[in-house]
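Q: Start with the shorter request: fold the first protein.
A: Done. Sequence, then structure:
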Amino acid sequence: MKIRKTQARAKPEKTRASDLDVALRLRREDALPAAPAQATQAPVQPGQQTQASADVPRQAQEQKASAEFRRRQEHQSAGGRRGRVAPEQHTPTTGRFFYALNVPASVTGPLSEAQRKLKGNWRITTREQMHVTLCYLPSVPLARVAELKALGTRLTQTLGPLDVRLRGTGYFPNEGSPRVWFVKVEAEGLDELAAALRAGVQALGIETEELSFKAHITLARKKGPAPRLPPLLFDLGWTAGGATLQRSHLQKTGPVYEQVGTFRFQAPAQSQPAAPPGEDSPHSTHHPDANSPSPAPSPEAQEPS
């Protein structure tokens, strides 16, 4: 019986000891300094982007798309019809140019009368377009046109007026399959002037036509099946007092020529001997004789411009 009482009494003491340990442990925890609060956001590692920085490219893309949409709307308004985008304007940096002799009205008139004989798909050269090409330049930087003007002035200032004569008509490349109908031109010193212009242009590093020079006036170009005319002879001529530099603008209806430079032959003209009685003067004009043969064009003749 005594033993049982001792055990019964020991239980409350053990319980009180446990409560005391818990209280002491709580006091010690209260006395300790508070632990630092953990960061709510993990630090950004190198190479990683935050959500805010990731939104920047998306915002830039949205702004770019909005600007592109406004631009297309403006183009559609300029285009007229709904949904039609107006084409962007293109400013050329090169152009087609050529040195030439202009043809006076006293010569273009009879040539125009001869053109009326053409039948079929021929596109005639208008009187305003008639010229004698001296040197053709297919692609000239527009920034270098001033150099071409200076070259023309330098090469023509020592020349005198040229006595130009017309001869017979011909076809290029040949009469069997013609593409161009032209009339041959002759003048003393004309070949030398054309050669000097070509050499001067090439010395500037500007491209020139590779075909050999054959003086002519283009009268018509063939655009489809069309009958050919028999050879025509012209006894026409004029005194050329200068040359020009012209730019060719290609249009659907044909080329349009813009004169951009003029060069006078400044040397004094040589006196012309009087024509013997019964012979025509160098500048007499006659209507073409459709029954007269004309010299056959040279096989290496260039395509007239």
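Q: Next, the second protein, separately.
A: Sequence, then structure:
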Amino acid sequence: MAGALRPVVLLMLFASLLFVVDGVFDGVYPGGPAWFTGRYNNLAEISYIFAIVNTVVAVMVARGSERSLQSRIGLSVFFLIERPVTAFALGPKPVESIVTHLATAGVELLILVTALRVWRLGNTAPDVDTLFSLESSSSSSAKPEQDSEATRRNRNAVATRNAWLIGGVTIALAIALVVDGIYEGYVPGGKAWTASSDGSGWIVYLFAAVALVVGARAMRGGKVALRALIAIALILFLERSFTPFSMREQDPIVLALHAVGAFVSLAVALVTASVIRGGPSPHRASVPKLEAA
């Protein structure tokens, strides 16, 4: 593990421990007062899911994945908002639980600052090869002439691989939104499509259409479209993450669909940001990896 990465990974593992401790303080354990009893709208249990996801990402970061580090930066932003909100929004909680929520938010702030420092170091260091190793270099150099021709045709064009990656995650986001709308009954003959809070779920179809249109433009490499796609993805990430809390949603399938939408939205933002940072140059790695030092 690179020396610069070690503090990030250790903080992430500590955050996973805090997620588990918070679940215990909330009474989410077999026979506990909040063990799938409807208390806290059955949302306290998600703390254990956060712990598992966080640990998996920590392992991937420790193995040197730059994309995982970028994902963890996004998760830190999410947890910085989610931990304080859920400490109070789900109803009265024990003091120990509230303190744990706030402590986790503090740890997440440290993770965010440290991860950003490592990520910026990896992209500004003069001897970048000491921080990043280039995977798939043979495949990227197999067609140097084609890559250089594509670069000359359009300096803003996204490499074919990255273009399809943007398209793939954008389509996945649109599918997640459409499935959510269908499940909630916004189909012909189903719920009424209105502008009120109880009948506005159809707006996910509009979100999906906008994401697909902007994503199609982003695949062609337009800088404005790429930045617009990031903005849309981040807006959807926040909307998907916090709508269940504001609507006090209890349907586990709806919660799962919102969670999928949130994570896919984050993936869209990270992939697009990576493409913008990488640019069209054929000399950059397609899948950069933090190298152990």
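Q: Describe the second briefly.
A: Confidence is low (pLDDT under 50) at residues 126-142, 154-158, 280-289. The chain has two domains: 6-124, 140-284.
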